[in-house]
């Protein structure tokens, strides 16, 4: 009798232990399925047991359940087609023609799907139906407001030295109203940062337009919102740099985008239409319209501005290089629409008299051919050409004033009277100007461009926050004031004299910088702000 090795003894012991465990669990069949040998009888020969150990483990045979339905295997169309070996030539030709037609149809469908996918990634130059671009709800609701924006009296809220008490009373009343504002509602309208904002003049409801990076929205915490993808499909190129409500028709909204286009959205007709496209040009950074509503001024990242007259046919736009660097904001004087303020990364805020910048005057000579930035541009003049003309005797009075900041000027805006200016800059200063009406007469330079007030204000938003912009109220019937975000998570409100009227904050609900702000153009006790994570906040009285 051969001697059994220690390894075989241990193996037999392990098998016995496993068999006992399976038997205790009533899994004898499972033991057999796993390949364990059955328990040998006591009188079994050692030779037979050693032979059984030498046999390979047999694979377990699967037991098919009667209730299981066999899954059909995938087969190609060629294999599924049963071909009659005795098929005559005519039937064969017919069968092959039908197969070829099916293949052609499938190929056409594939190519059409690929073309639709490519088209979804292209900029949108065609007219768009809002029912198509609206991702949630009915986006064609109308409002009851008619022409809402009108030029204010430039001498409104101007007080003499003897009327300081009257002015103090106006400011005190406004301060009391603004300090009573609280967080009325919040809503996350997009996943990414909010770039721009506009408050609709509708009085019966709060209608607010946010321009964002155009990604998918997630949650909603208050109110109702719609998302319209009217520019380049949801990419970084679709970021909305500016949103403006038409001063003549509040049912129409204008937007500029990083896809280098300007579009109008009509909520009456339900159509989004392209107004201007700077194909191959610089990014469009801002736009503004005078109260008359027939003209549009657009600034870009190359230091130029585009002038559009909506009464003219497309292709009559004019381009002027007003700076050697990016113009971040442009503002049309509402009471004197031919005066234009521009803030640039070259650290300057300049005031231009645009009556000189017209092709009809013939003063600038021939257009610069190398600046023909798009088919929509009828004429274009570069910065050097405009600058030389402004410094010439003929062009005297084209640039009426200039102020140099310590760092890049991020924004500048006229108030509703067209009398005061406010600018923001990366030198951490807010600057407020107040010009007398006499300064706008004639062609001479402004007597002084020294700011009325310089306010220390942290503007270091960095890369991931929208740059802070100080925005005046468009309401001409109340004392002029402006809103601006604060890096300490508040919304600050200042008067036209640079006095802090209110610092709106709620640390229990707001933990982010309110970088983008504006106020209601018809109601004093309304303001709105947005942050870099796509959340907006409505500020209103407690009983609103």
TrEMBL record:
GO biological process: DNA damage response; regulation of DNA damage checkpoint
GO molecular function: DNA binding
Protein name from the UniProt record: DNA damage-binding protein CMR1
Xref: PANTHER family: WD REPEAT-CONTAINING PROTEIN 76 (PTHR14773:SF0)
Record Gene3D superfamilies: YVTN repeat-like/Quinoprotein amine dehydrogenase
This protein's record includes keyword tRNA processing: no
Stretches for region Disordered: 33-151
Leader sequence residues: none
Protein source organism: Schizophyllum amplum
Extent of the WD repeats: 320-355, 402-443
Keywords: DNA damage, DNA-binding, Repeat, WD repeat
Feature: compositional bias, Basic and acidic residues: 42-54, 95-118, 125-134
Family: Belongs to the WD repeat DDB2/WDR76 family.
Key word DNA-binding present: yes
GO cellular component: nucleus
Role according to the record: DNA-binding protein that binds to both single- and double-stranded DNA. Binds preferentially to UV-damaged DNA. May be involved in DNA-metabolic processes.
A UniProt-annotated Pfam family: WD40
InterPro entries: WD40/YVTN_repeat-like_dom_sf, WD40_repeat_CS, WD40_repeat_dom_sf, WD40_rpt, WD_repeat_DNA-damage-binding
